[in-house]
Amino acid sequence: MHVSHLSLTDYRSWGALELDLAPGSTALVGANGQGKTNLVEALGYAATLSSHRVAADAPLVRAGAERAVVRATVERDGRATLVELEVNPGRANRARINRGPVPRAREVLGILRTVLFAPEDLALVRGDPSERRRFLDDLLVASAPRYAGVRADYERVLKQRNALLKTAFLARRSGGGDMRTLDVWDAHLARAGAELLAARLGLVEALRPRIATAYRAVAVGGSGDRGATEVDYRCSLGEAMPASRDRDVLTAAMLAELARVRPQEVDRGVSLVGPHRDELVLGLSGLPVKGYASHGESWSFALAMRLASYELLRADGGEPVLILDDVFAELDTGRRDRLAELVGGAEQVLVTAAVAADVPEALAGSRIDVHEGAVTRVR
Question: Which of the four pLDDT bands, split at 50, 70 and 90, describes residue 171?
């Protein structure tokens, strides 16, 4: 899989752009603030319907414009597919596939798959648990787009249940309250939560050895046992967590735990059980990565998580586009060279850098200079 053409209209700093891309390595080189990251962010948006930099769509639209348009031509198995996304802040976004409209924007998920590593990824190891939950769920959707619906269903049910818990809290203070409606939403939350939980557990199991291999390769050159990684999933079910990943078993366990903690939930007006409370626990040499790992170790661990994602997606026959946004300037020479060697054989690698010297020789394929709202192909 590779992107052969990217077209932007009123996206971030780009009023209009037409950019041809080729398989292999391409370096986008330019000083800070010239729009390099905006280009690769647009590709990530075409793949995931979200930005790795901001949570809302409004910042993606150029100042003064009402909407932004991203078009990406994706080549796979000798066939080209055009993905078009119209970003409309405050309104529903629109999508087209091969110029034909689709009922929901998420219909485009799976056409283009990307794995993007950027400075923001330090939050994967140093940030809140929500960052790691998002990492898992984004990867689930990339591997099987139907999980976008599962994720949306769970978030919708959770929002409704939290609203009902707050209502129940107020009603109990006044001496009233009917819990039967909450029982119905318990069932919905347990069913959607069990499906998401089962998928996450399977994903973590598949990622664990890949993260270990990638970390050894990037951080220590693949030699010895130095820097052993640990990746574990901590579920909000606690001791009530069953050994089975069967969805019916997980649903029953979640329902039982929801019933047990309901008094605390009503007191606090928030759901205390479910995938939204779970945590991906990361360790290195027996210590938590967060708070104990050095800057270089943290970078290497975050990079290992992205490389493991790449290998996982690649294993199912759909090699993703690999994007390295301003990564090499943060790495020492050894890590830089080892990373370049690891990804040099990918079908398509896009690298951004402030100066050409930051791009390792192994990835010095095509070069495009980005300057003052224009792109110039150097080679």
Answer: low
The angle at the Cα of 136, spanning 103 to 41, to the nearest 5 degrees, equals 60
313 Cβ partners below 8 Å, 6+ apart?
113, 115, 139, 142, 143, 319, 320
- 293 vs 116: CA distance, rounded Å: 22
Kindly report the backbone phi and psi dihedral angles of residue 250, in degrees, each rounded to the nearest multiple of 5, phi listed first.
-65, -40
Domains of the chain, earliest start first:
1-113+318-379 (3.40.50.300)
Whole-model pTM: value is 0.91
Asked if residue 185 lies in contact with residue 164, where contact means CB atoms within 8 angstroms, the answer is yes
Contact predicate 10/62, CB 8 Å: yes
Token readout for 293 is: 């790992």
Going from the C-alpha of 259 to that of each of 156, 173, 183, 325, the distances in angstroms are 20, 20, 9, 46
The dihedral over CA atoms of 40, 20, 305, 316, expressed in degrees to the nearest 10, equals 140
Which of these, 124, 125, 66, lies nearest to 93 by C-alpha position?
Answer: 66
Is residue 34 pLDDT above 70, yes or no?
Answer: yes
E strand segments, 40-126: 68-76, 79-87, 94-97, 100-101, 114-117
Sheet holding 94-97, edge to edge: 14-20, 2-11, 68-76, 79-87, 94-97, 100-101
Task: Place 223 in a pLDDT band, splitting at 50, 70 and 90.
Answer: very low
Residue closest to 144 by CA, chosen among 82, 195, 77, 75: 195
Distance CA 103, CA 126 (A): 38
Element of type H or E holding 369 = strand 366-371
β-strand 14-20 against 24-29: which pairing, if any? unpaired
